[in-house]
Amino acid sequence: MIVCVSVVGHQNNPLYIQSFTDADDALKLHHVVHCSLDVIEERVNNPKTTLNEAFLGLLYPTLNYKVYGYLTNTKVKFILVTTDLDVRDTDVRNFFRKFHAAYVDAVSNPFHVPGKKITSRTFAQTVSNIVGSYGLN
Amino acid sequence: MVEPVNSSLGKMLLEEVSPVVMVLCTPLVEETFLKNGLSFVETLKPFCNFNNIDVPVRTSGDQLYRLKKFTLRLFNASDIKQPNVEVAKQRLEHVITEAGEKVFDDLKSDPPQITHILSDPESEIAPTWFQYYNKELIRTLSFSEHEAFDHPVACLLVVSSKDEQPVNKFVDLFNTNRLPSLLNDGVMDPKILKHYLLVHDNQDATTERTSKVLSEMRSTFGNNECNLLCTNSSKEGNVEHQANPWASFKSSVSANKLGCALTGDDIVEIKDLMQEFTSRHIIPHMEQKVRELNQQISATRKGLRNQIKNLWWRKGKDDVPDSTKGSMYTFSSTESQIRILGDYAFMLHDYELALSSYRLISTDYKLDKAWKHYAGVQEMMGLAYFISNQSEKEAEYCMENAFSTYLKLGRSGFQNATRCGLWWAEMLKARDQYKEAASAYFRICGEEPLHAAVMLEQASYCFVLTKPAMLNKYGFHLVLSGDHYKNCDQVSHAIRTYRSAISVYESTTWSHIKDHVHFHIGRWYALVGMHDVAVRNMLKVLDCGKQSKATQEIFLRDFFEIVKKTGMKHEVVGLQLPFINMSSLQVIYEDHRTYASQASVLVQESIWQSLEDDIIPSLNSGKSNWLELQSKLLPKKYKESNVCVAGESVKVDLEFRNPLLISTSITSVSLICELTSNSDDLTVSKEPSSLSVGTESSAEHNQGTTSGFSSFTLSEVDLTLGGGEKKMVRLTVTPSEEGILKIVGVRWGLSGSVVGVHYFQSTPGKAKTNKGRRKNKLTPTDALKFLVIKSLPRLEGSIDHLPEQLYAGDLRYLVLELKNKSESPIKNLKMKISHPRFVNPGNHEEEVTTDFPDCLKKGHEQNNLQRETSSVFSFPKDVSLQGDKSLRWPLWFRAAIPGTISLYFTIYYEMENVSSIMKYRTLRMNYNLKVLPSLETSFEITPSPSRLQEFLVRMDIVNRANSDSFHIHQLSTVGCRWGISLLERVDKILPSKSLLPGQALSCHFMIKDNRKSGTEEEKTISNPPSQTDVKMFSQDDDEKLFDIVNSPLTNFHKSERSCQETSDQLSTNTVDFILISHVAKSSNSSGVADIPKILSHHSCHNRIRSSNPLSWSLYGPRTIYHDFSTSLCEVQLKLVIRNTSSGLSSVSFNAIDCLPDAAAPAPSSGNQSGWRYVPDVTEEMKLTSDVMGSRLGKPPSSMESSPPFIWSGLSSTKFEIPPLSTTEVPLQISVFSPGIYNLSSYKLTWELSGHEDASSGTCQGYPYYLTVLQS
To answer: Which superkingdom (chain B) (predicted)?
Structure first.
């Protein structure tokens, strides 16, 4: 199950973070997302490897979660936290592609201020739809 | 990278994996040394570390090498046992608690900055007590059964010279019954090197006995194995050591006391003893043992044959169940021997030999499934690889292997796993693999919270050291660690970790995390009693608008609790609750510009300025104002400040927003101001903003309270903000003295004990003030600085009963009331009104005595004097205001057009006793009105076809109001030129007399140009020509007509005329109408508050409309008596043609002499040709009677076939008629016989020129009947 998705700006400022759990673990998920930024940073700044796609793959496995990352061309990061232990990369890739499209729609809104939190209700709805569709698989 | 030996792990290994010496001593020995505050072991301890012992060693190989660094570990025999788990735990806890007490004082300081952390050298990042803790942690595992490096290498037997029978004592000491159980159990080899030491206390033992005992010892145990140690040479026991060697080992007692009886010589003796003991006895003994074991093992285990044999033998034991019991291997078993060999070799720094031994044994253990032993060996292998700087990979693999093997053992192996993990982490750290080290720490967290806390904290420091630093993880692990500390009540440690974590999160926007950290650290600070710091941290949480409501409530509740506990008022600069919207800051003050109401303040300054251009003195001509004048009078430093008047309040509008979801009440919101007297330039008195603030922090603004009175007064506002609510707050300060007033900030109280302060200048560039717009050069700070000048008169004005909503056309009588409360008089009042179309000032003070609408009616004495309409209205010179007297001046108001209208009044006045800075002031008033549409009229005037001076008027009225119906009272034409009369009775078409909403009505009137009344030949209308008013309903006979020439109506009409002018071309031939109506009394549900008494609708410049630019009329006699026997009859006629168009018209007149045959009269063709009498056609007479009336003359006496008349004068002519003028054309006809003739047989062809819409056309003549009778 996908428990949390988030959009993080290029200055590591949270633009959107939404958890999909019933429990009150928002703080924990915030921390997990926040920590995984370190890993993204490490991946991106690693001189040895060059990134040739936006999908960053599995960022780090914590005890209960798997964290996946995705980096857009504008250095906006998408982070996905899931409790599924066997996740296929293609699924995650697909998820991020859809998520990216939703994000682009949201920031194309002329009333959206770049670098500010995404408050669009449509975006939230789209995201939860995407998450919902993956939760069933 | 550091040399492995010099790394912290290397040092640790040197210390921890070193030979153990078991110490057995008699109680008297302990007594001797306790004089120094130390036990015997403790006394020796500082001298067991040798940095340069320089002993040559040869172990397995032939190569000699020299040991440089060496350490001995001394233990009392009683301590040689596996430590109790509980005791060990307590000790560890004690270590942490002690460390927590040490850091306690640092907690007050500000948290470290993240940049500092990153730039700090490695060693300073983690607290030093971690090393101590780790050491203690490793020590809890000492004397484990599966390892051999804790096995005692030697035994030191110590007897005091005061003991009875010292030699026997030595024997007794090494009595197997009293030896540690580990030795007796067979885990450790009890046959160890023994060394005998006799202690001689110089203070109370005799030298003779000692030397006797020593010689006896030497003879019994052998010369080499016996030593004498003389101590306590200082008789007084007050030696103080400069660098106390024991201080670092025992901190609890005051360091000065330690070793007080030991002189320098004693210390040297101890040192020499230990050095000798190590180099002469222990190292050679170990060396020998290694050689022995090596030989033995080579014989049994090395070589292919032995290995196969071993393998086969072990296979046979396969079915033996897993056994973790140590008893499986005794010290004498081959496996243990190999292990001992390895450990000894390790301790003698022969890592090659150690490794080969470990490798050999590890397979055995593995085959035996002795996992603990196996893991222990793997661990040692890893360390050996590391310290000998061999393959990194191997080392790591071994550690990993050992670690996971320990973990596999379950709970029992966890402690070992912890130690292994610590070493592993240290190893990784030494190789700069901090990230891996962090994960190693993370893996040894375990379940016990305190332990986990320490490990997590160590892990977090590794993340800082990672290149590049992983600060997010650093923060996260610190937070985790802090939570664990808190769970174990290690509050100060929890605070410490959170403090560091703050530095990570402070600059980020992860508010959820930030709030959590600040909130908890705040609470913990409160727990340890540091309330001020607690409050400081909690303050950062208050802006927690994004949290859930429940969380916000908890935050606030705890915050207020903590604040209450501090027991004092906190003044907080930059309190985020509520949030102050600086961009909403508006300063409203009055200098020479004064405002009657709030609405007038908000009006754009440019509107006022354009309004006041005419009336403010020309001295300050143009755009500049009093500031220029002022600049001559004032020092430059005041030039840029605004001016306000003492006794008049300066208002500041500020928006407060509650960021929370829960409602918050804020008390006593007030401004913080400073008033500096400007009598001299030095700051004389700084006034406090408020007198009731009790904390030290506000002291700087509290100076000068001693004077006991305030030179200004502040308003205080209490308000409650609901969740997320915004409120505009109006704050005022009223200076009572001259000087410089500065508005510094705003303060407010929150829940009684917190005072929020916000300084305005702290956010430069944000404050946009109303007045700042005027003087853009001013900085916001300047905008909040005022020059307070002497109190001046201030005019107050209002207009009574001005409705906000009214109907278009509503005419009212209003009163402008002006008041000057001060004693000094004002004069030279002038007023200017932005919409003269709407408002007209009256002429006299309170001129109207009778009731309002009636006074406009005819019959009242009216002053019809028309004032020259000037845009500025000057009050009479003798008007001067003073004291409580008020001036009531009449105003006529008429809502001219529907829509929303802002009326601006500005009243200029001058002060009589003038202050040097301000000579005049203006009062600005602004009223906003909503004018609803009411009646809409349109007029169409068409020339009357029959009369040149008369016109038909059709008036269309539509009631556009939503709910009210109107009574039409009267229609008047303006001026005396036009007379008006009713064509039909309105009562017939509108019996109800009132026009309902949406209803339309058309009425017809006749108007008549009175100017040329003399040319008319008859008057068919009964009205006298001068009547300009017509009453619409004849029943209302009792009501008089309104007099439209009296002052308000005329004045309004004038402005209406100028407003309704469509083109600049003035046409004189227009009619202006005024329709007067009133609201039908029946309906009162309208939106208009009070029913208007009278409405006047002005319709100006109504032009006579016609498709034909010409109007003409034929004048001449109607009936002629003529004697046809004498001559034919010549009749003189006159054609008057008027050009009603605005262009020059050239007209040609063509008479048509009709020459039709007489047999074809053309009644069917209408009036196109001449008409002759047909005697027998009586029916036709009736037919045409409609047209001609009954004025046909008698039938002609004769019938002739000749044409009845001919145009005998000029029959064709062409002339030009200038616009709007009249030309007369003389005509003549000749009539040959009596009869009735229709003289319509002419044509007028016109051509319009000189105008853009040039056109042309032809008109047929109008019928004109001439009756010629035989005389």
So the answer is: Eukaryota
> Could you tell me the pTM of the whole model?
0.65
Cβ neighbours for B1123, distance < 8 A, ≥ 6 positions apart: B1270, B1271
Instruction: Read off the pLDDT of each residue in B1112-1139 and give the average, rounded to a whole number.
Output: 82
Please give, rounded to a whole number of angstroms, the shortest distance from the CA of A113 to a CA of chain B: 16
Query: Chain A closest CA to B666's CA: distance in Å?
Result: 29
* Residue B527: half-sphere exposure toward Cβ, Cα within 13 Å: 15
Q: By mean pLDDT, which of A73-87, B11-25, B244-258, B346-360 is the weakest?
A: B244-258
| Cα separation, B978 vs B1102, whole angstroms | 12
DSSP state of B113: P
- Written as one letter, the residue type at B1184 is T
Is B441 part of any domain?
no
pLDDT at B230 over 70: yes
Give me the domain span that covers residue A51. 2-136
Does B148 score more than 60 pLDDT?
yes
From the candidates A28, A34, A67, which should be mutated to test the interface with B, based on the most B CB atoms within 10 A? A34
What pLDDT score does A78 carry? 92
Contact between residue B366 and residue B307 where contact means Cβ atoms under 8 Å apart: no
Same domain, B949 and B906: no
Q: DSSP 3-state assignment of B409?
A: coil
Residues B997 and B1119 in one domain: no
Residues paired with residue B1213 on neighbouring β-strands, in sequence order: B1149
Helix count (H) and strand count (E) of chain A?
3, 5
B463 with A38: Cβ contact below 8 A: yes
pLDDT value at A29 more than 80: yes
- Identify all chain A residues contacting B473, using CB atoms and an 8 Å cutoff: 35, 38
| Residues of chain B positioned with their CB less than 8 A from the CB of A115 | none
* Distance between CA atoms of residues B400 and B381, nearest Å: 11
Look at residue B123 in the predicted model and tell me its pLDDT: 63
Contact residues, chain A, for B479 at CB < 8 Å: 31
Q: Indicate whether B753 and B653 sit together in one domain.
A: yes
Whether residues B697 and B584 share a domain: the answer is: yes
> What separation in angstroms does the CA of B29 have from each of B43, B198, B225, B500, B600?
11, 9, 18, 49, 101
SS (H, E, C) B1075-1091: EEEEECCCCCCCCCCCC
Residues 6+ positions from B646 with CB-CB distance below 8 Å: B735, B736, B737, B738, B788, B789, B790, B791
Taken as a whole, chain A contains a residue count of 137
Is there a single domain that holds both residue B839 and residue B949?
no
Q: Looking at the structure, tell me whether residues B583 and B705 fall in a common domain.
A: yes
CB B364 within 8 A of CB B379: no
Residue B127 resides in a domain:
no
Reference A8, options A99, A108, A129; nearest CA is A99
Dist CA B228 CA A59 (whole Å): 67
Q: What is the mean pLDDT of chain A?
A: 85
Per-residue pLDDT at A103:
92
Find the DSSP H helices in A1-88.
Answer: 26-45
- Same domain for B898 and B954, yes or no, is no
Cis bond upstream, residue B83 (ω within 30): no
CB-nearest partner of A27 from B508, B509, B512: B512
Find out whether B934 and B1000 touch, Cβ atoms under 8 Å. no
Token digits for B1159? Answer: 């047999």
Angle at B611 between CA B732 and CA B616, to 5 degrees: 80
Our CA angle for B249, B251, B255, nearest 5°, is: 95
CB atoms within 10 A of CB B987: 13
Q: Which string of b and e fits B33-62 if b means at least 16 CB within 10 Å?
A: bebbbbbbbbbbbbbbebeebebebebbee
Structural domain containing residue B846: 795-854+862-932
SS (H, E, C) B910-964: EECCCCCCCCEEEEEEEEEEEEECCEEEEEEEEECCCCCCEEEEEEEEEECCCCC
Q: Which CATH number is A121's domain given?
A: 3.30.450.70
